[in-house]
Design brief:
The structure holds 2 protein chains of 2 kinds.
Chain A (H helix, E strand, L loop, with lengths): L9 H4 L12 H9 L8 H5 L6 H9 L3 H9 L5 H7 L6 H4 L11 H15 L13 E5 L3 H12 L3 E5 L8 H4 L8 H13 L3 E3 L10 H6 L2 E6 L5 E2 L12 E3 H10 L17 E5 L3 H12 L3 E5 L11 H10 L2 E3 L2 E8 L5 E14 L5 E5 L5 E3 L3 E4 L3 E2 L3 H5 L24 E3 L2 H4 L4 H23 L1
Chain B lengths: L1 E10 L2 E7 L1 H6 L5 E5 L7 E9 L4 E7 L3 H7 L6 E2 L1 E6 L10 E7 L2 H14 L3 E8 L8 H7 L2 E6 L6 E2 L2 H14 L8 E5 L2 H12 L5 E4 L15 E4 L2 E4 H4 L2 E3 L5 H7 L4 H12 L1
Parallel strand pairs in B: 8-9, 8-12, 9-10, 10-11, 12-13
Antiparallel strand pairs in B: 1-2, 1-6, 2-5, 3-4, 3-7, 4-5, 13-16, 14-15
The chains are: A alpha/beta, B alpha/beta.
């Protein structure tokens, strides 16, 4: 039997922001680790975007060597405690696991988390001091791609400065993913670890504004890695989107997660949420918004234009949302948000959809059902229909080539149209997962090392 | 951390503070703003950069103590530290020689219009200033404005300083005089910054004359880097973000009614937290 990770009861967890998944005990972890077949040619490793030696660390857990297991993970992954929690293992390592043929893959995510949490329970992570090269590299953006690239470059011995526009480092890990999925203490520990590798973190530094890429080169940086993410919120373009209590997912989550509006007025940032919330979208961000709204005491309806099967959100998160009481309205497309005379939301106008032929994404395209318009009462609308690359830095940087959807164009080595300027993560792909951004950060670090080798000779 | 270098009370509830912020001072231009956080539990608030000194590496902020954060900020003193400053944000004022420019500031907006008037003057324009407040004890920067304006008009709601009435009354009179005169021309630009109803009144008035008018908007913001959309406004029927697309917009195109409603989103929450400060 595959071991499931213990969880807080749904009835308890909707009352607070405490972490939902609780983690394996020693016995559970070692028992699950013992199920691993230790494949000679492990398919799980190929499924991992950063190539962690998965059987290697699992073997160490089985032998009771938890700290060594973590060290094994950290050879490839600087953010183990984060990945153990938010990676879609079911689409990556676990889907590739040989035991998945029988439907009982190893619970790799929970084991990674078990190894990583050793540090939380025992000490603040600290890396051994190492020799510094004088070569300076700038990393722009402290989300998963930036943190990974900065850590790897520091391990290679470069002098790394990590620039972050917000006042707290972590990017989407701190502003986007809620506390109950990823406690902020964990992100802060990971950042602490990266600092201990010698990375200097500068917050409140909006590159393109406070300093330009040109300024960075003038200040002596020999290479720049741009990992500014997909920070531009998408809206639906329907009437009523500027009404009060219509939020982009980014605004809603930033207020609650980064600024801790759920602790208002102890924390000064407010959120104005009603009793009846509609969240629009079907991805993990929409699910996060729905579950945050529940915890703020509202009734929540998630409105998605396709059916449950096409939802891009993780199965686990959809299940969590159902357990907690989120109501799902599938095959429903919002067409209009209605407001009262003071400019506040009072309802949502929708049309019913049905599934037609598959579209570019391979999912069946939703098409409107004629004369199926209807309204329902809501007083808050959260729009979670995707994010695009943040245009600020590309706009402020002459000669930086961008693609159709605002992504920065890079070559096979993650180098942009400007020599010495590299980019990776959501800014080159559009919104994607934490781990694929980390994979890009990792590969870019190696490319930067090669580039600097070339440059110095 | 940023140190408060200087503090001065300019008027009742209006304070001027100079902050150590060398990187921001290096890039700051008229029309831009910063985001400020007082401490770990603080909110992010946008404040217009009233002045900057590149050599000393300082910026000056002038704020009215109306909200929770501005009141709390006003309790700090020279030598104290605030946790965060981000900037300079937004597009700078596009200042060049265009002729006559009327710059209008209302209330704490006077602090924000001052650097704009100054930069237009510096480019060689004839600058007319109109500044207004509720009463004399709330009026700020009169001397500074006089220093950069060719003509300065003052209004107060109660008539305790300058003429009794509103800034829009002066603007209307100016336009009437110009209309009747054969020799003077309408200003090339009217620039206004202040409460939403004031900016709306200015825009509604100048629209009929076809005089180019810019409003410097003050919507609610969070990150102020284009990430959240909290500051979205409708300009010319299109959604724009005050933080990265602005803060200056063609006033004739701005939906001020919507902006006015959106700035009231957190009224109840403001009351709650303000009570906390009074306790």
């Amino acid at each position: 039997m595959r071991a499931k990770i213990p969880q807080r009861a749904a009835s308890e967890r909707i009352k607070n922001f405490l972490e939902v998944a609780l983690g394996f005990s020693k016995e559970q972890a070692e028992k699950e680790a013992a199920r691993c077949l230790q494949c000679k040619n492990p398919p799980c490793v190929k499924g991992c975007p950063v190539g962690i030696d998965i059987p290697g660390f699992i073997k160490l857990i089985k032998e009771g060597k938890r700290r060594e297991a973590l060290e094994k993970i950290k050879e490839k992954n600087n953010l183990a405690a984060v990945c153990g929690r938010v990676c879609p293992q079911e689409d990556q390592c676990e889907v590739a696991c040989i035991l998945n043929k029988k439907g009982i893959p190893i619970n790799i995510g929970a084991l990674e988390r078990y190894a990583a949490d050793y540090e939380l329970e025992h000490r603040t992570p600290q890396a051994a001091a190492r020799a510094r090269k004088s070569t300076k590299v700038a990393v722009v953006g402290s989300g998963p791609a930036g943190l990974t690239c900065a850590a790897d470059l520091a391990k290679m011995g470069y002098s790394v400065t990590l620039f972050e526009s917000l006042h707290i480092p972590g990017g989407v890990l701190v502003y986007g993913i809620p506390e109950f999925r990823l406690p902020k203490q964990i992100v802060s520990n990971e950042v602490q670890y990266i600092k201990s590798l010698g990375v200097e973190v500068k917050t409140n530094s909006l590159i393109g504004v406070t300093l330009t890429i040109e300024d960075l080169f003038k200040d002596g940086y020999k290479a720049v890695f741009v990992a500014t993410g997909a920070g531009l919120p998408g809206f639906l373009g329907i009437p009523g989107e500027s009404l009060n209590r219509v939020y982009s997912a980014n605004e809603f989550l930033t207020r609650v997660n980064l600024m801790k509006a759920y602790k208002f007025p102890e924390y000064a940032t407010p959120i104005n949420i009603g009793k009846d919330v509609a969240v629009i979208g079907g991805g993990n961000v929409a699910l996060d918004c729905a579950r945050v709204s529940l915890r703020l005491g509202s009734k929540v309806t998630l409105v998605y234009r396709r059916s449950e099967k096409e939802m891009p959100g993780r199965f686990e998160e959809i299940e969590h949302a159902k357990e907690e009481g989120v109501i799902f309205k599938f095959l429903t497309q919002p067409v209009k948000i209605l407001g009262d005379e003071k400019g506040f939301v009072k309802g949502l106008g929708c049309i019913k959809m049905e599934l037609g032929e598959p579209d570019d994404s391979g999912r069946r395209r939703p098409v409107p059902v004629k004369d199926s318009n209807f309204f329902f009462d809501v007083d808050t609308v959260i729009v979670a229909v995707g994010q695009s690359p943040n245009p600020l830095l590309p706009k402020a940087t002459a000669n930086l080539k961008t693609g159709k959807k605002g992504t920065i164009e890079v070559d096979e080595n993650f180098m942009t149209s400007i020599p010495g300027v590299f980019a990776g993560g959501d800014i080159i792909t559009g919104a994607d997962t934490v781990i694929s951004a980390m994979g890009a950060g990792k590969k870019a670090a190696t490319s930067i090392q090669n580039y600097l080798g070339d440059v110095s000779t | 951390m940023h140190k408060i270098i200087e503090k001065k009370e300019l008027a009742k509830d209006i304070t001027r503070m100079v902050f150590e912020a060398p990187l921001i001072a290096r890039k700051a231009e008229a029309g831009q703003f910063v985001v400020l956080i007082i401490d770990e539990k603080g909110e992010r608030i946008p404040l217009t950069i009233a002045d900057f000194d590149r050599e000393k590496g300082t910026i000056t902020l002038i704020f009215q103590k109306v909200g929770y954060t501005t009141r709390k900020l006003g309790m700090l003193n020279a030598g104290d530290l605030i946790s965060d400053l981000l900037g300079p944000l937004g597009h700078p004022t596009e200042a060049k020689k265009i002729g006559t420019v009327v710059t209008i500031g209302g209330g704490a907006g006077i602090a924000e219009v001052y650097p704009v008037a100054r930069v237009f003057k510096k480019c060689g324009n004839r600058v007319i200033g109109i500044i207004g407040s509720r009463s004399k004890d709330l009026l700020i920067l009169e001397n500074e404005m006089r220093g950069v304006c060719d003509e300065l008009f003052i209004t107060t709601d109660d008539g305790s300083s300058g003429r009794k009435g509103f800034v829009i009354d002066v603007l209307k009179e100016l336009f009437t005089v110009i209309e009747k005169s054969a020799h003077t021309e309408f200003p090339a630009l009217v620039y206004c910054i202040g409460p939403v109803p004031m900016m709306k009144a200015v825009a509604d008035f100048t629209r009929d004359f076809g005089v180019k008018t810019i409003a410097n908007l003050n919507p609610v913001m969070v990150d102020a880097t284009g990430m959240c959309g909290s500051c979205r406004c409708t300009v010319g029927g299109k959604t724009v973000f005050g933080c990265v697309d602005g803060p200056e917009f063609d006033a004739h195109q701005v939906d001020f009614v919507e902006l006015g409603k959106r700035t009231k989103l957190f009224c109840n929450q403001e009351k709650t937290i303000n009570e906390k400060l009074t306790e």
